[in-house]
Amino acid sequence: MSLFHLLIRNIWHRKALSILTVLSVTATVAFIIVLSLSKAGVEQGAEKGYGPFDVVIGAVGSDTQLVLNTFYHVGAPTGNISGNTLDKVKESSEVDRAYGFTTGDSYNGYPIIGIEPEYFMTRYGDQRLSDGSLYSNTGEVVLGAYAAKMLQLRVGDTFYGAHGLVEGGHLESEEEEEGGEHEEHGDDAHSIFKYTITGILPKLNTPDDRAIFTTMDYAWAVHEGADHNKEITAILVKPANLLSAQQLRSELESINGVQVVYSSKAVADVVNLVDKGSEIVDMITILCIVLAAISILLSLVAAASERTKDVGLLRLLGKSRGFVWMAMIGEGLVITSIGLVLGLLLGHVGGYLLQDTLFSYAGIQINPLQWSLDHLIIAAGTIFIGLVASFVPAIRMYRMDPLTLFKA
Length: 408
What we know:
The protein is of the alpha+beta class. The protein has 2 domains: 3-46 and 273-407, no CATH class; 61-256, no CATH class. The protein is 55% helix and 15% strand. It is built from 14 helices and 14 strands. The chain has helices at 3-13, 15-48, 63-71, 83-91, 118-124, 145-151, 174-179, 218-222, 244-252, 263-306, 308-316, 321-362, 373-399, 402-407, and strands spanning 55-59, 81-82, 95-107, 110-114, 131-132, 140-143, 158-160, 162-163, 170-171, 194-200, 212-214, 231-232, 234-239, 258-262. Strands 1, 3, 4, 5, 6, 7, 8, 9, 10, 11, 13 and 14 form a 12-stranded mixed β-sheet that branches. It is elongated, with a radius of gyration of 30 Å.
């Protein structure tokens, strides 16, 4: 009997315990893969989350809250600042590009953001829209690719927004559109201000995919009567050079109620906070790895106890100590390898199933097809653990006398 056939027969003979051991390895590997994909998504999102806008200006408050709301569309804004601040920033010689940013309304949980359409050229370059064209008039909007997909909206559709990031808003029906009348769904101005979709953005792989964009003055048009005090939520600034950010900060520090934040620093603070929180997850991961190793060890120890007489017979028939050694080691490696392959597949399937949820709630973009150095480390570590767990029963069988094994 060849070594391979012996391994398959032994594994199949104790298929229940073998399957449980494989599932233990599979679950551990899949869990680690999902964590690896999520971590890579956070790091990549942090790297390109704010694009070329190294400075963001907004109301005094939490700098991380300002950056998260402005670039990642998470949480509430820190407040509003005067529109005159934008004029002052644009006049500064330290600024290459500056765009005002207004937000606070939404449609079915997707934020409506007012910003000049030139923003897309500055951040993403000359990219063609998936459909339609950019907005130019008040009330016209373009949708991020993910928002358009989830809301099932197309160019030409119209809707009514809602105040705040709530599951509100109203899609105009055909009867309302043909009749020219709109039944108010609330008692505020949002229920009568209609948005018309002019375009769908291409997939950008940033949080902008889950936002709705329109002209910066939409907030002033919705809230009539506030025209005398045209406030904005934030200003995105692309400095002229490396030293310009510090110079610009010095220029604006004297303005009451305004803070100037370095985007990279605020994002780094968030990533560091996530890393600290992931320490608990790392502890859970280590525990899962230990349990998987113990599962492999117990499975092989139980197998060795059952096969003592079989191994003794093989030795008496002339099989070498090395054959017995390889049989026990090989069984552990085969079980571990099967669990590893299934775990890799399950981990990427899990990443695929979770990508929309994570992107919708946290702006974390998971690429379920991504393969990296982490995968090689995970694979090598899994095989190593399986090999180590196989040593104990293999050494026991290797050292025993064949006649003693048979009499046992």
